[in-house]
Amino acid sequence: MTSTEPPARFGDLIASEWIKLRSLRSVLWTPLLVGLFVLGTAATAALADRDNPRVETEYLPFDAFPPTGWVTLMLAAGSIGAVTSVGEYSSGLIRTTTVAVPARASVVLAKAVVAGALWTALGAVLSVASFFLSQALLGSHGTSITHPGVLRGLLACTLVGPVCALVGLGLGVLIRHSATTMVVTTFTLLMLPMFFSTRRQWSADVNGMMTTSAWRRLVQTWEPGIQDGISPATVAGSWAAYALWPLLLTALAVLLVRRRDV
Amino acid sequence: MIEANELTKQYGGRTVVDHLSFTVRPGRVTGFLGPNGAGKTTTLRMILGLDTPAHGTATVNGVPFRTRSRGLRHVGALLDAGQVHPGRSATAHLSALARSNGIPLGRVPEVLREVGLTEAARRRVGGFSLGMKQRLGIATALLGDPPVLLFDEPINGMDPEGVLWVRGLFRRLAAEGRTVFLSSHLMSEMEHTADDLVVIGRGRLVAAEPVAGFAARSGRLGVLVRTPQPAQLAALLTAAGAEVAPDRAAGPERLRVTGLPADRIAALAFEHRILVQELTPYGASLEQAFMALTADSVEYPAGEPR
């Protein structure tokens, strides 16, 4: 029986969550496949625009951010984020984890840090790779990374993974049931924006606060104008949506995980 | 040392654990007994801080377990062998737990060897048998070398060799001065393993005492007598103040006598020239004592008329 106990370090929890994450094969393969898919869609978009003389230069950087690819990444990040938390509840592992670490909120935060870091790293590599690949394929039409709005787009793509992963992770802790968590995560990321049309100002404003809509706004390298009297979402508002969703859900998760029986 | 003080828990208006108080001492194996649904698991969960009691407190070595920031060096627990991720290997599962508590990773192969899972260390837990999962659960409990160990139904799914091994392990852990608390719904399991018993029924305390005391208090001692003249001997012994019942299962010549020791029975038979062919003292089994004590507190009795 040990008499001396080392101090409880948050870094130990991060290391522990990293071991958990990398020891699941599906969690390793899915981001890799999603990454290849994103690059594939960027390449396809660039090839389609290369031979199209009517596409204005203003829109060419957008080939690096094809929604088919990046929305798929959002879905994957959301689902894997959800799996890292709800998987513990569905297998019952959460009880073993909670006996090992009675400080429950710290475990949730450690999971958030690991999921956030993993998807940020992947997002950074992928957004830069996807930009250079698409612009290289555009040949002489290709724009440079210093083109107005491009850096913002790259940052928006880098951060959309962690944002969605934290949304899924938080929902998993709140819902604690695998299938329901998956449905709600997918619904929140993909379907929810569709309920708020852009034909009324208030509805358009709510729509702009959704993660997918915020991403769409941030990767637009051109400035959208007022259409039918509806002003588009602002860049600042879209960044706020990026911050709000993960913060809100992580805070709720931390709050509830302390109060509920495991 | 585990102390439960007036522990109470309700689920959906139903009181599952009802003002339960008991102490589990170090250096001994304590059996936690009760029929299915008596509230054993809920009590263990409250001790481990997984469930918040509606009323009362539970402490482990004087401290509510939930207030610890890391747990494995204080308490080792096996609640349910299934509480692992099926996609991970035994090594990955234990490594993640060890790392979270700052336990050196070298401890992982040590505990795996201790529970006999060295060969299966790299295999996915999803393919483990129930007995192997129980061993992994025990390895998890041992990881932090804790002074207090809790096991919920640890023998479920183990083969006879495993049962023998695990009994020896519990005895050894107690001999090392640790507090060992085992739940079970089978008295026969505890008879060979536990020093002390905490018995509950419908969430209430039924008994808390050493196994020997429990047996003596609740078990009725008697003598099995075989004689070719059962009617005469029965009349004689009844007159001397004993209770006599024919042992129908054993045959017409056998009597079960309680209330008189074997030597008195032999002396009476000798005085009245009645031949006695067998005279065997017996103790009521702990299982019977347990059944008798908890009979009126069984949550889901079988064969109840509807």
Explain how this protein is built.
The complex is a heterodimer of chains A (262) and B (306). Chain A is 71% helix and 0% strand. The model of chain A has no long low-confidence stretch (mean pLDDT 91). Chain B is built from 10 helices and 13 strands. Classes of the chains: A mainly alpha (262), B alpha/beta (306). Chains A and B meet through helix 1, helix 3 and helix 4 of A and helix 2 of B.
Q: Please name the two chains that share the biggest interface, counting residues whose Cβ lies under 8 Å from a Cβ on the partner chain.
A: A-B, 37 and 44 residues
Structural class of chain B: alpha/beta
Share in helix of chain A: over 70%
Relative strand content of chain B: 25-35%
What's the tally of helices of chain B? 10
Strand ordering within the main sheet of chain B: 5-6-7-3-8-9
Shape of chain A: globular
Question: What is the count of β-strands of chain B?
Answer: 13
Beta-strand percent range of chain A? under 5%
Strand segment tally of chain A? 0
Poorly predicted segments of chain A:
none
Instruction: Calculate Rg of chain B over CA atoms.
Output: 24 Å
Query: CA-to-CA gap between the ends of chain A?
Result: 27 Å
- Helicity of chain B, as a percent range: 25-40%
Q: Give the count of helical stretches of chain A.
A: 10
SSE string of chain A: HHHHHHHHHH
What separation lies between the terminal Cα atoms of chain B?
44 Å
Looking at how many chains there are and whether they match, the oligomeric state comes to heterodimer
Overall pLDDT level of chain A: 91
Order of helices and strands of chain B: EEEHEEHHHEHEHEEHEHEEHEH
Q: Give the structural class of chain A.
A: mainly alpha
Structural features:
heterodimer; A: 262 residues; mainly alpha; 10 helices; 71% helix; globular; B: 306 residues; alpha/beta; four-stranded antiparallel β-sheet
Summarize the structure.
The complex is a heterodimer of chains A (262) and B (306). Chain A has 262 residues and is mostly helical.
